[in-house]
Amino acid sequence: MSTLYIMRHGDAISRAATDAERPLSDLGQGDAASMVPCLLQRPPQTIWVSPYLRAQQTAAIVVTGLVQAGFKPKVETVSGITPEDNPYKLVDLLADVTDGPLMLVSHNPFVSTLLSLLTEGHSQARIGMVTASIACLDGEVNGMGTMALQWYKTPSDQAT
Question: Are 147 and 4 in contact (CB under 8 A)?
Fold first, then answer.
């Protein structure tokens, strides 16, 4: 793999029956849609998405935007990328991925820690990913700290 996009889900409502069932707010839906242009130069071929509702909704909005632009990524729901999961385990899985670009749609603290592990080689997140933000990394996952951050964009960047 040479390109990996890491996206945090859009803004979600604060309460639901369970954390996994929290849907996106109207703001979160708009923010997710605003991020699609960031992906059009090199769109993801595959999107791995957390099973939580807000991540599923974010991925669906991104896929709709990509399809409207003429791209059709494959979407896979992946357990192990929820807020409580261990990002160290995903680093090992990513090392086996040969197709790309790949996009992950997940949650904090998972995404911020994963970004740090892949680019810095440690778990002290330098970038605390805001809702609907995307980090673009390049390189091969040969262990911790083996990818380079190409860019990090937020919905407020898209508004300017």
Answer: yes
